[in-house]
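Would you be willing to look carefully at the protein I have copied below?

:::
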Amino acid sequence: MISRSFSASQACAAIFGAIFALMSACGAAHAAFPERIIKIVVPQAPGGGTDAIARILAQEMAKDLGGNVIVENKAGAGTIVGTQAVVVSEPDGHTLLMGTFASAVNSSLVAKLPYDVRRDLAPVALVARAFNIVVVHPKSPLKSIADLIAAAKAEPGKLSFGTYGTGTSAHLGGELFKSLAGVSMTAVPYKGSAPAITDLLGGQIQVMFTTVSSAAALIEGGQLRALAVTSAERSPAFPRLPTVAEAGVGGYVLENWYGLFAPGKTPPEVIDRLNRAAGKAFVSDAFRKIATNEGLVMAPAPPEEFARYFSGEEERWRKLIQDAGIKVD
């Protein structure tokens, strides 16, 4: 009996020892993160605002993570190509996505996405929020949002606004304005902000709801006139400009934003580690500089808060897109 009891005790000890060893090994594996180079996929071409933000983020996160963090550009299909590349990657935190406004609207614009954003992407960190700015030609008779509304109501459909393509913030910003102000204007799509602004300067279109980075230098140089910012509150970068809501279009808010995602099923402890590294990056001098230049509001938050923000953006824009019948072929 003593021998049997002793054997059972030994067996139990062996089992618990094995379990402890396994738990320790798992803990050690997570503690070793990152085990190799971390890649941030930017689903757009090099050289744009998203690319610039991702490169600074990679540089600053690498300092805290103690490993290399690189940026890889995978442009195509309105950010779908790059997003899909992240979705199908190993969910271990070594491949990340720099998501944007498009990440929240593509599910409403595209009939058959090759992924489900809520299932296949895990929010890591909201990096920054940014407003757009309503601009016209400096010689335009439109000197305020009130003027824009009056002109659009006087001749429905005659005024046109430039966009960077269907579903971009410049497009949906104009559609939101039409909906809330009760006016009719015509959207004119371009392949990027530069040709759209060129036509605005040439008088082919009358207004744009464009990004700050595309317009700030032209506003400062007197080549464009700014009417309002699209944020919920006035911006320190343009303190004299009212918000669109303040200028008469109640409830109007349009934000561009940048956020870091991991593939779905990435371990929570890895996501938390990445979130902490991103949070430290946001307070760096490099980020302060780009925030000033790009009109960004840094938005450090835990993954759960970013998830709520993203869900809210998805729902808000889905309603507008459905009501306006907007689709991407």
